[in-house]
Amino acid sequence: MLILFDTLNVYYLPQYVPIIEQLKLRHHQVKLVCYSNKNDQQAFSEVINDLDVECIWVNNTQQAKLAYLSLKADWIFFGNKFEFLDEVHQHSKTAQLGHGVGPKPSYYHKSKTPMTVRFIEGDLRLTKIKEYYPKDKFIQVGFSKLDPMFNHTQPEGDLAELGLDPNKPTILYAPTFNPSSLECFPDNWPEDFREYNILIKPHSLTQVREKYKKQRQKLAKWSIFDNVYVAKEQDISLLPFMKNADILLSEASSTLFEFAALNKPVIVCNFFKLKWSYRGIFKYRFYNRFGKDNVLYSEIGLHVNNYTALIKAIPQQLAHPEQYAANREIYTNEHVGPTDGKASERIVQYLENAPSS
């Protein structure tokens, strides 16, 4: 079979890679379709070359459509909606795969235009999306991105190579781009955690979009501390950071679900900066987009309302990782799904056994 992966954003790759590896093991042909209007082709050339698959670069979705009509693949994976499905479905079957398991309503509404199948992670997500789209095809498989963590094929990262001390406990801070707690952290906060390594993995959009330059200014200030490593734009995958970290800090990122699935403590930062269109009289927009579903992670771990509270919360949670363990297990079953490391195998088996029409 020929299987294509629509890579609208390069940060979809960690979700795709375990599936790609399974397909290669079974001798299927794999190609990426990447978008130069969304991603820096030169910056990510090494990352893509390491996958050892052909990458076709297009400028926009119109060019992507033409590529799909020409290639006539057996299957095309999408990490988001795609506006030309009627034409694509004349030649190919399509599979939708979310690149995160966060609480945003967009997770569900990407399925408004149905693909041949959508692969779903946890029990609660499957139930909810079936309520939205009762006539569509959904298959629960788990969360392919985490397969290397669960099947123990993810290599140990070398903290010393990052300039950090392997003997120190390690904090992973993974803020999203909006709403983000990043700008609410002090310029010198690594000084308050001198006894810890700090791995900082910002969202990929923080790294590249002009409107997030103030976030990048914060990252530059933190990067000078000798107990800090700030991920580069090319550090696409969060997995190496998760492997080494003992605790996670975030505010509204699906990383909270992913890290909790490893049965490690998470701290939810309830303090963040809203863009102007979510503030004041427009705050209802924020609650309409995030508020209703943010309750999904209300009990996933300890919540802190300001940076000062975080100073005491981190050592407390590290000393008592069992405090939210039962909650983490529930969240994992509901949102991440099976943790046997075989989500990618289930996906490939479905592709191989699906009816031809």
From TrEMBL:
Protein name as catalogued: CDP-glycerol--poly(Glycerophosphate) glycerophosphotransferase
Originating species: Shewanella intestini
Lineage: Bacteria, Pseudomonadati, Pseudomonadota, Gammaproteobacteria, Alteromonadales
Source organism superkingdom: Bacteria
PANTHER family given in the database record: TEICHOIC ACID GLYCEROL-PHOSPHATE PRIMASE
Pfam family, one: Glyphos_transf
Alphabetized Gene3D superfamilies for the sequence: 3.40.50.12580
